[in-house]
Amino acid sequence: MSISDSRYRVAVLGATGLVGRTMIQVLEERNFPVSELVPLASSRSAGQTVRFKDREFVIAVPSSEIFRNVDIALFSAGATASREWAPVAAEAGAIVIDNSSAFRMEPGIPLVVPEVNPDAIFRVDGTPESIIANPNCSTIQMVVVLKPLHDRYRVKRVVVSTYQSVTGKGKAGRDALESELAGQVQDQFTHFHQIAFNAVPQIDVFTDNGYTKEEMKMVNETRKIMGDDAMAVSPTTVRIPVYGGHGESLNIEFENDFDIDEVRALLASSPGIILQDDPSARIYPMPLTSYERDEVFAGRIRRDFWNPKTLNMWIVADNLRKGAATNAVQIAEVIAARCSAGA
User: Fold this and answer.
1) Of 3.30.360.10, 3.40.50.2300, 3.20.20.140, 3.30.365.10, which CATH number belongs to 138-319?
2) What is the CA radius of gyration of the chain?
3) What's the pTM value of the predicted model, to 2 decimals?
4) Is the dihedral of CA 306, 257, 268, 119 positive or negative?
5) Residue 246 known to be catalytic
6) Could you give the C-alpha distances from 211 to 61, 77, 202, 203, 237, in angstroms and in order?
7) What is the pLDDT of residues 240-266, one digit of tens each?
8) What's the CATH fold of domain 8-135+324-342?
9) 112: burial class by Cβ within 10 Å (0-12, 13-18, 19+)?
10) Exposed e or buried b per residue across 39-75, where buried means at least 16 C-beta atoms within 10 angstroms of its C-beta
């Protein structure tokens, strides 16, 4: 991709999935400078069309030839597809922004949330890395809030409990809830157990240490994004029967003391955060608050009873947007802005 380009040929791998469709929606809503959309999916979807800016684009299967004509490739087709096609696309000259877990913890591959570590996108010479990883949805919204607080007070430890939407499991997760609500008997539970009228304290499989893979993602990804291997993260991740929006209860211990009013002002003035913190008026973030929004919503801010250097708060974000599609598009926006500035 030439740094003089002002419009980009953008591929979306996984264009028929929930996140892929949301990527296309967000590209249009945010008016990303797309000269041509290249929707890609498996052979089952080839020949179908997706709509973008009042035009229909035919879905193709990925190939090395297709990627030679692509500037930026947004991937959301799972880790297996990413491992197969991301190196091919990068070799063909595309910049890959990958939403799967395939490369997140790979040394040398940046794991990026634009509000937190945008400079990680670029090499020393100022050119973008060829493969950039999009973090896990639950990690993204947490680090957006942690960043300004860490810069000001230094975060020592975070205890986080998540309340995650069924759409974190994609279309299958949404369909499972809908079928259960309709009274259909499930032969095999998508969420390990019935999710309707329930809360399941397991997301992904358990590891040998008793934590799930989802929980370990929050531990390891947070440290990498924040650039602080000493930051302690203690997570419990839970699936709940809502269609969109992940909630998180955070207990954050700082090295330095803080003022609650200053915390509120700091969060309210930080990019990507909307403060909703007026309990007397019953104003606080909820999953419905975040639906179809790109920001992280923060509220229920209060000092811990037992440790004066510890803060309790509640945050919510749309997991399909800021937790996946929007974050990927924002990475592309940072690349486009830097390239335009250097043209």
Assistant:
1) 3.30.360.10
2) 20
3) 0.95
4) negative
5) yes
6) 37, 25, 9, 10, 9
7) 999 999 999 999 999 999 999 999 999
8) Rossmann fold (3.40.50)
9) buried
10) bbbeeebeeeebebeeeebebbebeeebbeebbbbbb
- Looking only at the bridges linking them, the beta strands covering 246-254 and 155-164 are antiparallel
Full DSSP string of 92-131: TTPEEEE-SSSSTT-TTS-B--TTT-GGGGB-TTSPBPSE
Task: Give ∠ CA 74-75-77 in degrees, rounded to 5.
Answer: 150
Report the alpha-carbon distance of residue 304 to residue 307 in Å, rounded.
Answer: 6
- Hey, what are 40's tokens? 């890609």
Rounded to 5 degrees, φ, ψ at 303 are: -75, 140
Q: Which of 150, 191, 246, 339 is catalytic?
A: 246
Instruction: For residue range 69-86, list pLDDT tens digits in order.
Output: 999 999 999 999 999 999
Q: In what order do the strands lie in the sheet with 246-254?
A: 232-239, 155-164, 246-254, 310-317, 296-303, 273-275
CB 217 within 8 A of CB 136: yes
CB-CB contact of 32 with 335 (8 Å):
no
